[in-house]
Design a protein that fits this description.
With 517 residues, the chain is α+β, with helices and mostly antiparallel strands. The protein has two domains: 8-213, no CATH class; 224-284 and 299-462, no CATH class. It is built from 14 helices and 16 strands. The chain has helices at residues 19-52, 54-60, 70-85, 90-100, 112-131, 180-186, 261-278, 300-332, 345-351, 353-359, 361-374, 384-387, 419-427, 437-455; strands at residues 8-14, 147-149, 158-159, 163-166, 169-172, 190-200, 203-213, 228-233, 237-242, 247-252, 337-341, 378-382, 408-410, 416-418, 430-431, 434-435. Helix 2 (54-60) runs antiparallel to helix 3, helix 7 runs antiparallel to helix 8 (300-332) and helix 13 packs antiparallel against helix 14. It is globular. The relative contact order is 0.09. Residues 458-517 have low confidence and may be disordered.
């Protein structure tokens, strides 16, 4: 009988750890790393043996068929029999770990529940690799094992009211009685406990994560709205349109996030100089690294510089995560159905690598999915190939591909709108991965002025310049002329002006170019 699944959430609490307890925890993390690598090696070995068998090759040739069909059932049964034959199952790997790891010196530092959980972790990574969802799992190097968890609350790592106990260790928790989020987690049933190690300023800090049953605490200000919300995401921008609440905005992802690129580059150059000074024999006369095996030495100053660089990255990531959470809560207050195109953020990384790494739109979407699921809201991601929102016009039905530099939708039928906002508006009219032109035409008279008002507002980044497609006083990095069906003005500061309604629609609108990501 399959195990019943209930909703879960995580409550994280810092721990007070003494130097002696820290030494013990670091030793157990290192032992867990070696145990995990052993389990991963055994899982990959069994998978390779199974793939080399003729039965596996014959099973791969079976037709897939539709889900639930006889062909699909036959194919599934063939792979299930192979997993049994080659002992490529979760419980088989747990038995192997208990038999081989627990009987060695590693078993003196790890309990059976934690060892079995490490085996499960290694098997799941190998299984995802076997399914083709992820690449080949990597072995963990020194100081790369940062978390451990148990199978339940009655063995291994346990939560005992106000502390964490684990085989002779008693780690008191630092609990804030006024924190409603933590109090909500403590009042819920704990499924299992996880220990997490983080490095803050070069020092180890330990936390416990209580995986609790139920839904997370929601602050009164973060209520869930009602209605459909359309979103259009770019490498560094987001457009949101909510017709029910008459809200629309276009802004930069994490506009408050101060760029640390200059500081990062300065520290990186210092790190390169220190590495060169500490290892002069590893470099050629022209400054390139010599080929072949080498031994690298690190001085104390170089290690401090590495810690400083890691701390800059950590603070930047923490600030970005906080800003993503604030934006998600702001969008959740606008509705309970969110529609957006299903994009490939890996493709974004290949084309806009630096911008994607700095703004992280994919992380924002994952936050939106998770928070919407906990609030019983719906995130509808449809294919961009069937809708083509950035190319289609709902007024006349024409489809015209636009270059990325063209940030305004100006059609001969009289529809003029900022491109990102217009795509977000059309997303609210998508049904079954198809654009409902009739619904869009019916909603357009009220949304026209809403999009014009949103496009006339600018959201300049702190310490940066105004994006050209946001509104007044936007600076465009491109100075090449743009041709269109309406008059376009070539200028260094191209400003899209909203029509005042006195003449032909779009007559006073300029086409501004989008700056490079």
């Amino acid at each position: 009988m399959p195990r019943s699944k209930t909703p879960s959430f995580i409550t994280e609490i810092p721990l007070r750890v003494s130097p002696a307890d820290e030494h013990t925890l670091l030793t157990r993390l290192e032992v867990a790393r070696q145990a995990y690598n052993a389990c991963l090696s055994e899982a990959l070995r069994r998978l390779e043996l199974m793939r080399q068998s003729k039965a596996y090759q014959a099973a791969c040739k079976l037709p897939k068929g539709e889900k639930g069909s006889e062909a699909a059932k036959l194919r599934t049964k063939a792979f299930r029999d192979l997993n049994i034959k080659f002992n490529f199952r979760e419980y088989d790997l747990q038995s192997w770990a208990t038999k081989h790891i627990r009987r060695q010196w590693l078993g003196k530092h790890l309990d059976s529940a934690t060892t079995e959980k490490l085996a499960t972790r290694a098997f799941q990574a190998t299984q995802q690799y076997a399914f083709g969802k992820y690449g080949r799992p990597r072995f963990k190097g020194v100081n790369q094992m940062d978390s451990l968890e148990s199978k339940g609350t009655d063995c291994g790592i346990r939560w005992c009211g106000d502390r964490v106990e684990w085989t002779g260790l008693a780690l008191p928790a630092i609990i804030d009685p006024d924190d409603q989020v933590i109090q909500h987690g403590l009042s819920s049933r704990v499924k299992y406990v996880r220990l997490v190690r983080r490095k803050l300023g070069g020092r180890n800090r330990f936390y416990t994560q209580l995986i609790c049953e139920g839904t997370p605490y929601r602050k009164p200000k973060n209520f869930i709205g009602k209605g459909i919300v359309g979103l259009d995401l770019g490498p560094s921008t987001i457009a949101v349109v909510a017709p029910e609440t008459k809200t629309a905005f276009l802004e930069t992802f994490c506009s408050e996030l101060e760029s640390k690129q200059k500081a990062i580059r300065r520290v990186q150059r210092k790190l390169d100089r220190q590495q060169w000074a500490n290892n002069p024999d590893n470099y050629n006369a022209n400054g390139t690294v010599k080929k072949g095996p080498k031994t690298w030495r690190k001085s104390g100053c170089q290690r401090k510089t590495q810690v400083k660089l890691s701390e800059i990255y950590r603070r930047q990531a923490a600030h970005r995560k906080s800003l993503h959470g604030q934006l998600v809560n702001r969008i959740l207050r606008l509705g309970n159905v969110f529609r957006l195109e299903k994009l490939s953020y890996y493709a974004f990384q290949r084309r806009y690598g630096r911008s994607i790494g700095f703004r992280a739109p994919g992380t924002f979407v994952s936050f939106l999915r998770r928070k919407a699921a906990s609030a019983d809201a719906l995130v509808d991601e449809f294919s961009a190939r069937t809708t083509r929102l950035s190319q289609i016009c709902h007024g006349c039905g024409s489809i015209e591909p636009k270059p990325l530099s063209l940030r305004w939708h100006i059609c001969d039928c009289g529809i003029v709108a900022q491109r990102d906002l217009y795509s977000a508006f059309l997303a609210t009219c998508v049904c079954d991965a198809r654009l409902d032109a009739g619904q869009a035409a019916k909603a357009w008279p009220g949304a026209d002025l809403l999009l014009q008002a949103a496009s006339s507002l600018s959201q300049p980044a702190r310490g940066g310049f105004r994006l050209a497609h946001f509104g007044p006083n936007g600076r465009s990095r491109s100075r090449s002329p743009v041709t269109s069906s309406v008059k376009a003005v070539e200028a260094q500061d191209a400003v899209p002006a909203v029509s005042d309604g006195q003449g032909e629609p779009g007559r006073d609108c300029q086409i501004a170019r989008r700056p490079r990501a």
